[in-house]
Specification:
1 helix; mainly alpha
Length: 100
């Protein structure tokens, strides 16, 4: 014997619904769409917040790196000045020794 056809989901055609049932179905659909839109907006807001936090972290790391680089450059310049001063002092001592 042939198998009985599978029963289709019980979704009454819109034309067979009463106006009140159609309005209720429309309200349910609108609520579901509104909830989905709200959930999407919440997810996007969370993602934007995470992105902003990552951007802030990256900016702070960059600022700290720049400050360290500036300090290192300043230290190197100071060391060059000290080396030059020592050379000048040595040359001055040699000149003074030659005069004496």
């Amino acid at each position: 014997p042939a198998a009985a056809p599978a029963a289709a989901p019980s979704a009454a055609p819109v034309a067979a619904m009463s106006p009140a049932q159609a309005v209720d179905m429309g309200k349910d659909a609108a609520e579901a769409l509104a909830e989905a839109a709200m959930l999407r907006a919440e997810r996007r807001a969370r993602e934007a917040k995470q992105s902003a936090a990552l951007s802030h972290y990256a900016y702070e790391k960059l600022a700290a790196s720049r400050e360290q680089a500036a300090e290192a450059a300043g230290q190197a310049a100071l060391e060059d000045v000290i080396i030059d001063a020592r050379k000048d002092a040595t040359a001055a001592a040699q000149i003074r020794a030659g005069w004496e």
